[in-house]
Amino acid sequence: QSQEPSPKDILEMIKQIKEKNIKYIFTEEALPPDMADLIVQQTGAQILMLYTIEHVTKEEFDEQISYQDFMYKNLENLVKGLECK
How far is 56 from 52, CA to CA, in rounded Å? Predict the structure, then answer.
């Protein structure tokens, strides 16, 4: 079972992101949106989603987005976040 970071953990994360000039942060679907928004506002970093497909939305299901589609999205975000050429 995953545990949400404490406010202290979030402040430390924000500090490290700023100090290391991190541009991208990888996360999964379970991250509360307000936490992601706070990190973006405080650091200017961009959140990139890595899909575990554990939290497929009804809209995604209705659009028949496949496992392969999610993995391609992951690949695109990894290439961007790791600044691969």
Answer: 9
Stretch (H or E) spanning 35: helix 33-43
Answer whether 50's CB lies under 8 Å from 28's CB. yes
What is the predicted pLDDT for the residue at 42?
Answer: 96
Report DSSP letters for 40-75, one per residue: HHHH-PEEEE---SSS--HHHHHTT--HHHHHHHHH
pLDDT tens digits, 24-75: 999 887 777 788 889 999 999 999 999 887 777 788 878 888 889 999 999 9
Q: Report the alpha-carbon distance of residue 85 to residue 80 in Å, rounded.
A: 9
- Residue 65 φ/ψ region, left for φ over 0, alpha for ψ in the -120 to 50 degree band, beta for the rest: beta
**What is the per-residue pLDDT for 64?**
87
